[in-house]
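Q: How would the structure tokens look for this protein?
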Amino acid sequence: MWLLIILVSFLIMAAGSCWYLFRRPSPFTLESVRPPGPHEKDQRERDKVLKQGFTKEKIPKNLDAIVIGSGIGGMTAAATMAKVGKRVLVLEQHDVAGGCCHTFTKQGFEFDVGLHYIGQLHENSLFKVAMDQITEGQLEFVEIDQHFDNLVIGAGEERREYSIYTGKSEMEQHLKKQFPEDVKAVEEFFKLMKIAASRTPLLAILKLIPRWLALFLLKTGMADFCSSVFRLSGTSATEMNYRLTSNKDLHLIFSYFFYGVPPKDSSCMINALLLHHYKRGAYYPKGGASEIPFHITKVIQKHGGNVLVRAPVSRILVDKNESAYGVAVRKGGEDVEVYAPVVISNCGIYNTFQKLLPPEIQAKPEIQNRLDIKPGKASFLLFSGFDATQEELGITSTNLWLFKSNDMDAMMDEFFSMGKEEAPENIPMMLITFPSAKDHTSQIRHPGKSCMTILTMVNYEWFEEWKDTKVRKRGDDYYTYKMRYANYLFDWACEHFPKLREKLVFQEAASPLTTVHYLGSMRGAIYSADHTLERFKAETIAKNRCDSSVKNLYISGQDVFSCGIAGAMHGGLLCASSVLNRIVYIDLFLLKKKLKRKKAREIARLSKPKLQ
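A: Here is the predicted structure in token form.
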């Protein structure tokens, strides 16, 4: 009897799965990917795609969805929906599409804003399959040097330098060579990386199954019985580091991708994922970061949608039944209403729930509960241009991470507790990256020129007194204060690359206020909501979903799961899954299997003549 019940249950589940998967065509197909076309170098043609200004006439008819914000999360959701025949309109408040993936050019120098390198783009990886689908194979990547990151801790006689390599086995082996007395700790950390990488999909599933079921599995302990990832996500990086070793240099290497949260307050799983992300290679878009929105926009347009800039959304339209039905765009001093049955916000939970919804909706407990997480730390960026080639400057594609000490917790606590006047000359860490050295087409597009981007994290409060001033008109005192940070960062960079100073011809600094103006981020936080330990506890992950208490309103981007380009893109895929009521990851997984079989057949076909 029990055997019969189990058999019937299995057949019902199998039939249900087949019905779910095949009742509608998949958004992702082998046929939609084609060989990359020639790179578009004509800036006027590129601007027609990336800088198409908002007008009523350019709004597509019979929209299926509106996306607020053209960051990679919103663009991924839009392209995925477009590929099942949905007409999607993406609205961007800046004058160029792309969010953190956009680039800007000044005096012949091209700078990336938020994309410095990406991992997990090796052949047939799930991330690569997804990226190929939303760009239909038109986006190409350059693999940067195997020695992709260099870490320098301390200065003078106390200076230690460590190199990080990509490679399925090389990354681990190279670290062991540098830490021969901590081989066991390195091995254990790489086991943690493997668990994080292979089991993180289980955390994503918490957002896709019914909320009551997710919480039931967590509260009863059934989820923990299935995998340790549910406990690891809520374990602090510092706690895990001390379990592995007392070597604080190695602690720093296990947590060196800083995003504004000290290791004691961040998840060991997220830090492990960040390093694992580059295990199979580090990549940069061929042609620059703006190639990503350029090609995704074309996919959206191909299916009847559009991406329009200079389109600041002033409010989300909500009817008496508390259902979203469109947005209002501020244009020429008046609001232009645009209607669609689905609204997706990719402009962050704070802008969405604190600014764009009607006041009476904002005040509801279920909305306020979504705002329990505070905004992350703000960023400070320094862009420098040089009249010299990378050979003349002695630079490579390897990124340089500089730290004053190996105690990340103490270093960050001390810096972020400083006063406004003390902070500029006491920056404890920074990232130096050379975009022009990562993409060989840069020398074709900008011959004889090189560029450098420096990133560090700061408190928004240090710049807050100028928040009501206009961009480029903030006054001499603001400029002087901002340049104190810039000069300190540049001087520190010159200690490692002494040829930079004599070849410098252009420099521009971006404070948190710059980020607020151009990217619309809350308090200049490029990683949006703070990536604290509390945020990555399994129950919080289960509750932080793409849907909202406002019917037809969805959230995409970094606030859905995690930070960075990859995190935001997965936020877009999770959002598309919610809107379409279809787990698109299953489609991606099946497509990945097809690609592997296709590759195996090709290898077999090519090997036949050799055997004969």
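Residues 149 and 164 are 5 Å apart (CA to CA).

The chain has three domains: 61-140+286-373+529-597, 141-165+377-526, 167-277.

Upvote if useful.
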